[in-house]
Every structure is written in structure tokens, then in C-alpha cells.
Amino acid sequence: MITVTDLARRCGISRATLLYYERQGLIAPKLRSANGYRWYGESELTRLQTIVAYRSYGLSVASINSLLNRQASTDQAKVLREHFELLETEISKLRE
């Protein structure tokens, strides 16, 4: 099991950012001990790595939440493709 601080370090984010993601419903601890400590497992580590990757692509927290809750990977690919198309359009406008 991994503590909140260790999980944040492994993903290269701050503890505060991880707790923000938890408040936004993107991630939840595997369990909480009697003293209130949060404990995370490997599945939460993988999920957080996905969240961090999506954020690095410029996706909003709301978009990430939507992506993570989708069942079909084709839907995820469609949303990401649309986002990248918007970014390309924005880059083209800035170049002009």
C-alpha cells in the first residue's frame, strides 16, 4: 500500500494536487485507516498516471472525469482526437 505523499511523488505531482483530484472525484483511496490515513494500491497508481498524462495533454479535470467514466476505449479515443483537433486549430490561429 502507498501513502498519499508517496503516490504523489511517484507521479510527479504535489500532495495538494492529488487531494484536489480526490475532491473532484477523479481518484479515491483504496482504503482509509482508523486514523484517517489514505492508502492507495497499484490500480490507483495506474489511474493517477492516466490522470497526470491527460492533464499534460491540456485536458480539463471535467473532461478527464468524463473520459475515465467512459466504458469504451473508442469513446476515449474520439474525445482525445477532438481535443487535439481543437489544439491544432488554436495553434494555426496563433501562427496567423
Structure description:
It is a single chain. This protein has one domain: Orthogonal Bundle (Multidrug-efflux Transporter Regulator, Chain: A, Domain 2). By secondary structure, the chain is mostly helical. The protein has a 3-stranded antiparallel β-sheet with strand order 1-3-2. Helix 1 crosses helix 2 (15-23). It is built from 5 helices and 3 strands.
Structural key phrases:
3 strands, three-stranded antiparallel sheet, mainly alpha, Multidrug-efflux Transporter Regulator, Chain: A, Domain 2, 67% helix, 96 residues
Q: Tally of extended strands?
A: 3
The CATH architecture can be given as Orthogonal Bundle
The CATH topology turns out to be Multidrug-efflux Transporter Regulator, Chain: A, Domain 2
The main sheet orders its strands as 1-3-2
SSE ordering: EHHEEHHH
Q: Describe the biggest sheet?
A: 3 strands, antiparallel
Number of helices: 5
Low-confidence spans:
none
Q: What overall form do the CA principal axes indicate?
A: elongated
Write a brief structural summary:
This protein has 96 residues and is mainly α. Helices cover 67% and strands 7% of the residues.
List the helices and strands and how they pair.
Layout: E1 2-3, H1 4-11, H2 15-23, E2 31-32, E3 38-40, H3 42-56, H4 61-69, H5 73-95
Antiparallel strand pairs: 1-3, 2-3
Helix pairs in contact: 1-2
